[in-house]
Amino acid sequence: MKKFIFFIFNFQFLIFNCLYSDMEKIAEEKAAISYTTASKSKKEKINFYISKGDEHLFRGEYSYAIDCYNEARTLKKKNPNVLLRLGESYRLADMKEEAIDSYNKALKYGSKDIRIFLGLGIVYRAKYLYEQAEEFYRKASELEKNNTMSLTGLADIYSEQGKYPQAIELYKKVLVISPTDEIKLKLAMLNYLDGNENEIRKYNIVSGYSAILNGYLKIKNDPDIAISYFISADEYFLRAIAYLKKNKVPIAKKCLDVVKNEKENTLSKKLSIALIKHIK
Amino acid sequence: MVIRRWLSVLLLTTYHLLLTTSLIYSQNDELLRNLLWKDFLALSGKRPKIALVLGGGGARGLAHIGVLKALEEKKVPIDIIVGTSVGALVGGLYASGMSISDLEKMGQGIGWNKISNFSAVKLFTLITAESLLSTEKLEKYLKKYIGDKNFDELKIPFACIACDIKTGERIVFKDGEAAFAMRASATVPGVFNPVEYRHRLLVDGGVVDNLPVDIAKVMGADFIIAVYPQADISTYEIKNVMTTLSQVINLQGGFLTEKQMKEADFLLIPNVKNVSMIELDKSQECIEAGVISGRSKVNELKDKILEKFIDRIVFQR
Predict the structure, then answer these.
(1) Greatest pairwise CA separation for chain B in angstroms
(2) pTM metric for this prediction
């Protein structure tokens, strides 16, 4: 109990200090800005607000960045450069509608920056509107053929829509341009989902996620090897399945208990709880 | 001052650490879900039957098209479909084998003049002389897509609900000509003429059962997904016969569905904002609402299905 009270007290103290520090910081900055911009021309003021906004955006302080860019926008409304940055800040602050509006205005005022199309693709994907997202990712990849972000975005959209062959083709392109373990795993998974199990070996990689995939593929034919793949507590659900395949029910139950007692409410935990009920 | 800044950094670092951990867990979940889902689908003959129950709601019900699209792209199999009113129309067409893209096109081009003998003159006589509209055109419209197919000729087992307006009985259509049953199920009382059927007068099934979850159970469903598009009906203006009647149907439908919703294993409620049941011109908004609802919930749905049938996947029984 004492520990709990101590923790609560300290946590509140921490929050208070951070908020107080932030408030002080805002006041300091406002004073500095009004002092700095007082004698500047309109163009200089815009550039000043943009660079200030960029600093905040770089540090992940999206609301401050939005304030700065909006200040720049009040000085010149049809500024695609500012609107693009505003769109980026809104997107990163998860203000989807505002981001779409800013990006669209940037397009309207003549910008053809690839970041606008990529940003719109990301926002529409987050809104689950894959058709619109696809359109913008496509436009981005038309602007820059080998842009991995647009190709990966497009491939992700196809994957979400269950169009696995198209997604595989695009990920293969990405793999040539920038070979990463993440793309290899995606290719392995999509090939598995599309029924091309022979292709999976091509993208065999060593990482925690591929251990799940490779181990799972072994469960049916070679549960002993599968067991060796599943090491972390979160993977103990799959370890339990492998033991069940070997008819070693008590060990399987122990594995399920481990996952059941995990703090995080993961799918493994939910499935472990459900499976325990079926094991006598 | 410096200490406060450091505390800020510490708090942010902790936050990012927690975020990264949850990201790793969600990636693991995604991987596990995909692997198990493939095995669930591979159960084929032994696979539990998933039913989709599509509720009524007039124009709002076009959201069903969006939901079907989301389920299809995420490979959620539909083994049984039950529908009321617009749910019967969308469900019946899908059960007949109509593709999602064709359904979308049809939904986008739908209008009152296509499904009834609606015209300015007819609307005037409806209000002044209480002459109801006919749904004969609706049946012809449906037949254009599914022909004279009977229920047993449909690709997915299907049932729909109508109501005998004389007795208040719930009529469950599971055999006979599908287009006729779908038409009867969507015959909104007070607007359309009741449909004659074996000495009965049939109207929209939503009068007695706007979300027939229990019928899906009777048809052998092991897992039931219910879809009931909802709008904020308190914002509607009540200004004439049509809007008053549609509001009454909204309220009554809400009460009738409460119990049935609890019986479903999974509930999808597309948010169609303030689209009323007569605004067929807002079909695109409704379809989009269905797509968003389906896509945003499909992983949760798959997890529920996997949880319920994990023993069958593991023990292949």
Answers:
(1) 87
(2) 0.84
- Of the residues B79, B96, B164, B204, only one is catalytic, namely B204
d(CA A236, CA A146): 40
Interface residue B72 vs chain A (CB under 8 A): yes
Cβ of B75 within 8 Å of Cβ of A22? The answer is no
B27 touches chain A (CB under 8 A): yes
B311/A271 CB distance under 8 A: no
One digit per residue, the tens of pLDDT, for chain B of length 317 reads 556 556 655 655 565 555 555 555 678 889 899 999 999 999 978 899 999 999 988 888 999 999 999 999 999 999 999 999 999 999 999 999 999 999 998 888 776 566 655 555 555 555 554 555 667 778 888 888 888 999 999 999 999 999 999 999 999 999 999 999 999 998 887 778 888 888 899 999 988 999 999 999 999 999 999 999 987 777 777 777 777 877 777 787 778 888 899 999 999 999 988 777 767 788 889 999 999 999 999 999 999 999 999 999 998 76
How far is B264 from B170, CA to CA, in rounded Å? 19
Candidates B85, B276, B283, B293; catalytic one: B85
Question: The tokens 């720049």 sit on which residue?
Answer: A72
The whole-angstrom separation of Cα B191 and Cα B249 is: 12
B310 touches chain A (CB under 8 A): yes
Residue of A nearest to B28 (CA): A209
Any A CB within 8 A of B73 CB: yes
Tell which residue, B132, B191, B202, has the closest CA to residue B167. B202
The C-alpha atoms of residue A135 and residue A121 are separated, in whole angstroms, by 8
